[in-house]
Design goal:
The structure is a homodimer.
Chain A (H helix, E strand, L loop, with lengths): L3 E4 L5 E2 L2 E2 L1 H12 L5 E4 L11 H14 L5 E4 L5 H14 L3 E4 L9 H14 L4 E4 L2 H4 L5 H8 L4 E6 L6 H14 L5 E4 L5 H6 L4 E4 L6 H12 L3 H10 L1 H10 L1 H11 L17 H13 L4
Parallel strand pairs in A: 1-4, 1-10, 4-5, 5-6, 6-7, 7-8, 8-9, 9-10
Antiparallel strand pairs in A: 2-3
Amino acid sequence: MFKGLSAFPLTPLSEAGIDFRAFTGLVERLVDSGVDSMGVLGSTGSYAYLQTHERKRVLREALAHAGGVPVIAGIGALRTRDVLELALDAEDAGVAGLLLAPVSYQPLKDHEVQALFETVCAAVRTPICVYDNPGTTHFRFTDALHGRIAALPNIASIKIPRLADDPVEAATRVAALRASVPSHVTLGVSGDASAVRGLLAGSDGWYSVTAGLFPEVALQIVRAVGNGDEEGAIALSVRLAPLWSLYDRFGGIRVMACATALLRLCGEDCLPLPLQGLRDGEREEVEAVLGGLGLL
Amino acid sequence: MFKGLSAFPLTPLSEAGIDFRAFTGLVERLVDSGVDSMGVLGSTGSYAYLQTHERKRVLREALAHAGGVPVIAGIGALRTRDVLELALDAEDAGVAGLLLAPVSYQPLKDHEVQALFETVCAAVRTPICVYDNPGTTHFRFTDALHGRIAALPNIASIKIPRLADDPVEAATRVAALRASVPSHVTLGVSGDASAVRGLLAGSDGWYSVTAGLFPEVALQIVRAVGNGDEEGAIALSVRLAPLWSLYDRFGGIRVMACATALLRLCGEDCLPLPLQGLRDGEREEVEAVLGGLGLL
């Protein structure tokens, strides 16, 4: 389940509410795309900004429109009680997997994060992916903690943060984590810019923001790696460097929101305030980059 | 309003709900204590972990039990729509001031934070304190941004993060910020360990976690500074070094939760999971430190 390419679509919304029509449109684009799974209500899916009842509805809309593509649902929240409610609801709704980040306001201690995962693992039967994203949660996992959590029942994968661009460093990181967790737990990379490095280093999958809107370009990279075409895979990723650069400058969610609007798949303002969409010159830059890559 | 000593009490709670009896007990302890204001639903008051309806009720309980002490309410939230709802509700309820932090999940851009404050400033008539707390929000204000926000209508104060222990560095920091904001905007220090440095450097107030439970020890420091007794003020703060050390190691909220329980003012588990209270040896350390300081 937590292998290959997992696509993370945006949840378009405005101050008036979630744009379910646009959201289900994005989900349907992924159905025959060839992605192995889709991750709804990930960071790019604005899970952290939605109320519990909104998240339950988004998930049901995704499941109703996902065709045969397995759906992974983000269940992270600041409080354990909310995580549990979302986990049980997602399981009832029929998700294939759960994605859980240790969201924080007060900095969390290792034993608190471990207890959070113990509580959720004991409450569900659905496989769980540990979402390691220090850029948003500000929690830093040690490999020892990853090892303890990965040994819990129902833990099936770890979504690891962006790897170094340097191939040796990336491979060393993947190998170190691999050595710390049980062999049945898959490792999937995030950070699209260096995903090819993770795949070449033997990670099992790619949790991809880009694939949420442009599954083909991500699939090309995954297939090249699968065919043993290391040079080709790297070249495909390098070709996308202008896109990776936009992510670095503006944040992936703002670029994807802009791109989705440029494709007329959602309205101009589709992020939860205080997050703002890109404007004027920034928007034109995104348009130029996507146009240059043949993505518009 | 945003001057002198402002005390920030805990909001004791459990998975079963908020312990309103314990909370109002903490509020009532502050009524005749001599503090200049109280800040409810601050970071130590767990605002980030509570639902909107819970926060509205906590605020009303505080106002009903605060006697003549002005109440400042934390109104931070991940979404602008929730901040606005909380701001208008707090104003309706009769608070003296609002405390607004740029809470983040996706890292925020300067113009997004500015727009958040513009929106709230335009919607209320109540004075607002800008809550600068990079340890929890992970947003770093520049002085230029502080200057632009401080010039907005209704902005009355900035709650600044912990200053350096070094007196020259602390004074330089306060002076630099002072030079960046209008003169009617007060500066109040956080980070109890170095609060005395901020007060001696001429900041207008102290937003204090310690004062939420032990107003006397904080007031002694404030009064010594007010009397021009620099050495005495520093000595009072140095005497509390074992307490500051506990904050550093365990986080202020966990220490205050433990101290509140040791004083039998709330139950043993009074933090929102995944945050856990201190246990066994850690709890005994807190007990020993507080006992040694005559605070139990």
